[in-house]
Design goal:
Layout: H1 18-25, H2 32-36, H3 52-65, H4 69-94, H5 101-114, H6 119-122, H7 128-144, H8 151-166, H9 175-186, H10 199-204, H11 220-237, H12 251-267, H13 283-305, H14 309-322, H15 328-331, H16 345-363, H17 367-394, H18 398-408, H19 413-426, H20 429-440, H21 446-462, H22 466-479, H23 484-500, H24 507-527, H25 532-544, H26 548-561, H27 565-578
């Protein structure tokens, strides 16, 4: 099921951040050391990210199939299939004392396989970090709650797996606490060694084969794993928490609104959107969310009193794995929530849902009633599968993604300006300019205004409306004075004027244009030293100015950073001529 519903995602192209990752960021990673100690000045790389495992997965995809979108998506779909199997195995472990163990685990895994909330993580190549973190978190839980090996061995291996998970995405850090607490909640009886025999033999012994979770000193492995992660993160980023959290007005209501948003999307994943900028913070909405949270907490207390510790643990799973994502409310207040953050928490939800539905069917006395409930479950799974397949198609390309998002988010400028960029890249300059101007009427921060003016400048530059382009680029720089893109584009105007002037200007005027381009390009190079396009432009400017040695050095640097095959060949021809 997990594979079938994502078959159409294999036809998706490179959308949103995908091209940035493949063609710009990966150029900075030259070896294993770069994975552990991140290179400086990676283009458009978040200062909060420390994800060596995710970067490694990109590098493996590229090594296998180059920049092929197919491999970029296939690897994520394969990981989702693996996760579905791991959810099934975790269900078998957690519900082993129940007579409907296999049905519960199977229905839980089926729900996980087709839940539409996963599409952002699976159908989008750059959304894979949650999928990878989930895989190693599930593996850690399976080892920790295993009935094999000693308690110390299980705790150590589980801690290593959680450490691997956080190297895929930071939000898995909650697993360092969740698993030891889960062992206490489930309070399995002690057993110094694993019992002999297969699963059937263990069931005959009363289903109590799982030894007690490791004690305090064995669980110290999780503390060691957490410390090692924090040390590595500090060594790579220069701090543990990354940039200082912003001051956000009404942080409490927004946090509660984020919790409510996530609860609704887990239960009813409709009207999904790739960019969510506003939260439910009205008095009525917050009251309803608070009442729901209280009801869930009361349900957990009731389950504990009735001995349903597995239910309590799964509720803890949802809350603990979601908690780190709530930090985004203050870290990125313009996009405080995202659907991909629900991938790992959905494990607990799907296992709870499977448990509840299976026992509801079993508790129904009449056979027609049981059949009706089973049919309803089947229809819901089919509806989830259809919704997932349809949502995958939204991620097909930038046009389909941002058309869908701009229709659903009517306040923020990012979806509209991203749609305009998609039209610009497809060659429809008129629609691009129209949507960029519409985006200006929406809410934009400094970076958003920069993007709009910078792209409007590029549209004017392509039409050789140099004066208009220069005005737009200077407006972009007023929003972001050190933006390498705008500095590069402003220099490109002078460079283009010098090469293609048809106004009868003399050689001294053309030289003056080149002299104006040079410092802009040098400033852009200092801001973004790993961008080969800047070195190409610098090489061209210096070549036209007669500085052959300087031009050669910059062309060689561009080649070293990596260029597309056709550009690489052209630059090598130029170097041959310069020699």
């Amino acid at each position: 099921m997990a594979a079938a519903v994502y078959v159409n995602a294999l036809a998706n192209g490179l959308v949103w951040d995908d091209p940035i990752v493949l063609t710009r960021q990966l150029l900075a990673f030259r070896g294993v050391r770069d994975l552990v100690f991140l290179p400086r000045n990676i283009p458009q790389f978040s200062p909060d990210y420390y994800r060596p495992l995710t970067i490694l997965s990109y590098l493996l995809d590229r090594a296998i199939a180059g920049a092929s979108p197919f491999m970029f998506h296939l690897s994520v779909v394969v990981w989702h299939v693996i996760n579905t199997y791991l959810v099934f195995r975790l269900g078998l472990r957690l519900f082993r004392d129940t007579p409907l163990m296999t049905r519960t685990a199977g229905l839980s895994a089926a729900c996980f396989a087709v839940h539409p909330i996963h599409t952002e993580s699976v159908a989008w190549g750059a959304g894979r970090s949650d999928v990878l973190a989930c895989a190693f978190s599930l593996a850690a839980a399976l080892v920790y709650f295993s009935d094999r090996r000693t308690a110390g061995w299980r705790a150590t291996v589980a801690a290593l797996l959680v450490l691997t998970a956080v190297l895929a995405k930071e939000t898995a850090v909650s697993m360092f606490v969740l698993l030891p607490v889960g062992g206490l909640v489930l309070h399995q009886p002690p057993s110094p060694a694993a019992p002999r025999g297969g699963r059937a033999a263990r069931r005959r012994r009363g289903g109590r084969a799982t030894p007690r979770a490791p004690g305090a000193w064995q669980d110290g492995a999780f503390a060691v794993g957490l410390v090692l992660y924090l040390i590595a993160r500090h060594a790579a980023l220069g701090s543990v928490l990354g940039p200082t959290t912003r001051a956000v007005d009404d942080l409490g209501p927004k946090l509660l609104g984020a919790v409510g948003h996530y609860m609704v999307k887990l239960l009813l994943p409709v009207r999904q959107s790739a960019y969510i900028s506003d939260l439910p913070t009205g008095p009525l909405a917050l009251s309803a969310i608070a009442a729901t949270v209280v009801a869930v907490a009361a349900g957990a207390v009731m389950a504990w009193r009735r001995g349903a510790q597995t239910v309590v643990f799964l509720l803890l799973w949802i809350g603990a794995t979601l908690a780190p994502s709530l930090a985004i409310v203050s870290k990125i207040p313009e996009a405080p929530v995202a659907e991909r953050y629900l991938y790992l928490p959905s494990v607990g939800y799907c296992l709870l849902l499977g448990y509840g539905v299976v026992y509801l069917v079993a508790a129904t006395v009449s056979r027609p009633g049981r059949r009706a409930l089973a049919a309803g479950v089947g229809l819901l799974l089919c509806a989830g599968a259809v919704a997932t397949v349809r949502r995958n198609a939204v991620w097909r390309n930038n046009l389909t993604l941002w058309q869908d998002t701009a229709e659903k988010n009517l306040t923020d400028g990012l979806p509209m300006r991203s749609l305009a960029t998609a039209y610009q890249q497809s060659g429809d300059a008129a629609k691009a300019a129209e949507y960029f101007r519409q985006a200006l009427q929406r809410r934009n921060d400094g970076g958003g205004r920069f993007t709009i003016y910078n792209n409007l400048g590029s549209l004017a530059l392509n039409d050789k409306r140099f004066d208009e382009a220069e005005q737009f680029y200077r407006a972009a720089l007023s929003s972001s004075p050190q933006a390498a893109d705008a500095l590069y584009n402003l220099a490109l105007i002078s460079l283009t004027r010098a090469k293609e002037d048809g106004g009868g200007h003399d050689e001294s005027w053309k030289r003056q244009q080149l002299l104006q381009a040079r410092p802009l390009l040098e400033q852009a190079q200092r801001v973004s030293p790993l961008d080969p396009e800047i070195y190409l432009a610098l090489g061209e400017a210096l070549n036209l100015l007669g500085d052959r040695a300087g031009a050669r050095a910059h062309y060689e640097r561009a080649l070293a950073l990596g260029l597309p095959p056709t550009t690489d060949s052209a630059v090598r021809d130029i170097l041959t001529q310069l020699q």
